[in-house]
Protein 1
Amino acid sequence: MARLFLMSCNLTREPYPVYPLGMSMVAGAARRHGHDVREWDLLAQGRDLEAAAAEIEVYRPDVIGLSLRNVDNIDSVSSISYTDHYCQIVRFLKERFKVPVVIGGAAASLFPEELLAATGADYAVQGEGERTFCRLVEEIEQGSLPDLRVWHGLELLEEDSFQSKGRDADTARYYMREGGMLNIQTKRGCPHRCAYCTYYLLEGCRYRFRSPKEVVEEIVRLRDQYSMDYLAITDSTFNDAEGHYLEVAEEMLRRQVQVNWMAFLRPQRFTEEEATLLKRAGLASIEWGSDCATDVTLAGMQKGFGWSEVEWSNQIFARLEIPNAHFIIFGGPNETEETVKEGLANLERLERCVVFAFRGVRILPGTAVHRRALKEEIIQPGQDLLQPVFYYSPGVDPDFIHRTILESFNGREDRIYPPAQDVDRIQAFHRMGYRGPVWDLLLSKKGRRPAFKG
């Protein structure tokens, strides 16, 4: 049995505080393998590395595992890379402790070799960590450090084998108190290969569904144990062609869960019955995977749907008084000055929604945008992408995008650009005790959720 100290290194609270679910899932898997695990969230523990070191001194782990959530903030207007932050943490730990340091999480999965070289960590886990991290720990337990430095999670976990039956109690209370939500996965994987997205690279290109009964049982445990009344479903896309998401909603109703929740939805031709079912089950806000605002740019981003589906989806839930949020990227493949103007006009027709606008597409390895950027010689083969690099369509000037969005959004509280613009206001709501995504409060002062008293 090994003693494992797992640390979530994320410090960002934008767009809202997010419980480190991936780390909890790896911790749960390690415990099922017989290991002793201590979880530590750097954000929840006051960003204090000295406090973490004191805990490690007492705990005396055999391995330290670091969860690296994001590479950067994907905001071209005020770009922030987190690489230096990760380097500082690894350097601090390796100076203090003579045990292997393993990095994992989405950032390490996208840039394993680069982050190993930058941080000086001993090993990186790429992909799903539950099985792969435990295999690495078992090798380390044998007494000689493995030569292989990047451990690939090539074999995806089976349905219903990825779960987190518990949460670290102190960490969970922090996120509830600070305005965040607890979170859950109902499935993994994504069959949609959007041009900019890495989900199918990280989780596979097919859905792996958990049992709706097991999903709802976990929600009930979270509700009862932590007084949770707002939940984030973190699936890449909650709705699926197979209808699994409707089965989850039906099970919520059957169990009378009575918890508000939000999810990421893919625009489609929802029926009134489907939309009403989701609302009755507790759907309280939606973040749409729309990404673009015209047929031309949606096609360029390989979304697989058109603007009519985006508008239909927004309006059907708007009629049910469910707030919508759209995250729109301007400047991607096929963008021109005409599509920028058309897209902003299309967004004007959407009701009961907040729009977050971005300029430029973050180029990530293995994506269609990466291949397109190489073909158009925007980047060069072998170019380091660990530091943020953004794709812009040759058909439009980035400054034109910037000016045009600002002009269109001027005076609108429900239109956010640049993305960092609204951070202070969102954090103010959280300090007042509100939780959930908070952007929905920008739409109306009516029906505000009560502040968390726990």
Protein 2
Amino acid sequence: MTQPPSPDAKNQPGAGFIQLSKADAPDLLHYKTEIEAVERISQALFQSLDLDELVETTLHIALDEVGAEAGSILLADPEKESLIFQYSIGDKPVPRGTGIAWDTGISGAVFQSGEARITNQVNQDTTHLHSIDQTTGFVTHGMITVPLRRWRSEPIGVLNALNKREGPFTNHDLRLLTIISAFAALAIQQAKQFEDAKKAEVVTLLGNIGHDLKNLLTPVCTGMELLRDEVNELFGKMSTAELREKNVNKDLCDEAGEMAQNGIRRLHDRVKEMADCVKGLSAPPDFALCKVGLVILEVFHSLQGVARDKQITLRTDGLESLPEFLADERRLYNAFYNLINNAIPETPPGGSITVRGHLDQDTGGLALAVTDTGRGMLPEIRDRLFSAKAISTKKGGTGLGTKIVKDVVDAHKGKIWVESEPGVGTTFHLRFPLDPTIRHL
């Protein structure tokens, strides 16, 4: 039977409370900082549903909490079995969109195992990917890596903190980052679900638009066919002398009719391409022998009026000497249409847009470049092009054009990158193999 406390015990300081020693002070301090981290990350993350903003906020808080100089968040891409650098902080950050195989390096090991790792002497760890440091010029001394995952769930990526400012990384740092990563994973998954819901709405809307466009364009196509038959019949009844007298050009009429029909077909194709892009789907490419020079000339033909109104010259250089290659002509047209159409408003009057081409001596494929004399891009805009999320800095822009271009290049097993400086202009470099059905490049 429990005895009641003695009268003397009741008068003792702290009677009825847990007695704490000085040795418990560090643990209390750690608990306090962990609770503060929970409060900070929960307040910050659940105020937004924008994926990029969430990732950036998470990394800033994480590095601040553990006092690290630099760090990155990498998200998994199941289709490519890669970890993609979504955001990076530091003097020499890793370019967004850089990918590594998700079973290589310390990040890959943590992602596969789901177990966090502290590496305070990176130069002695054989699993560290020194190639990333060599690419950026950053020197990693210490590193703490935690999986991004909800409680007892599969990781969706990893969070890295590099080079602690004072002393080595500790288990307390590990606990802090584990807490932050759990909240971040929950917020990121919530943001992705929200984006998926928005995409579903857009896909439905685009599908309806495409259906309406098809219905609206059908009588236009029919009318163009009737008009062409009528013109042919009319010209057929006229003699050469009458044609000369009336100064009528049948070829010009035929060209105008063909231009209208091609425009209708391209419009329908473009709506479908946008819908596929939003869904993250891509129809299998329909490869056939194609001359890229003719595709570019057709794009120029479609955009000539817009370019002329802005006093911009459209040029080609070296395309006529390029050989035929296997390509999906429809999708190739869409890619170059996007690149050139986007360049026109960025190029001041009197400027030019030039599409150049030559054979790539290293691969034997086609080396193409779309160069404008426009305003150029800021580094932060240039570096996020062709990343996982389509972003537009233009008022009313969707960012789909850039993603469509990247999807077309990927479908042709090609490569694309951009060089741009403010006030100098922009060049998009593209590389295509002559036969994308062969596994090379």
Protein 3
Amino acid sequence: MSRDDVLEKLKSIDTPDDHETFLRSQWKDFAAFAWTNFLQHGRGAIVVDLKHAAFEKSGLQMPAYYVAEGSEKLRQHGGWPNAEIVQAVNDYDPELDVVFLVWRVNDDIIHYVATDDLTPPKAYAAKQRKPRKKSAKHFFKGDF
């Protein structure tokens, strides 16, 4: 698949509805990941990097990583992209919510504050009880 074909396919799934569908489908993993990083690094957001996604034999591989408030990575990039994201990161309840930043194909960043009955601490606890499967590559690689 050429890079142009990949780009067109990524553009076709780069919609708020598709973002929400993807985030919901991976909620348990994302919520546990957010809680782990909150405990280690403090408040922050999960960046879902659609701009640098790729289609491989195993399917869509989309980098996703945690950026903490006050981190060196955040400083290197000049802080949060806008005041709405600053407010979302400052106001979310880490025991209930996860802040997602979706880095879109057109280089825009859209944010979501999501919650579910399976809270981040509960998702983390559930993952600790189960034997670990191979984790999906697209969750934990990438660079902001």
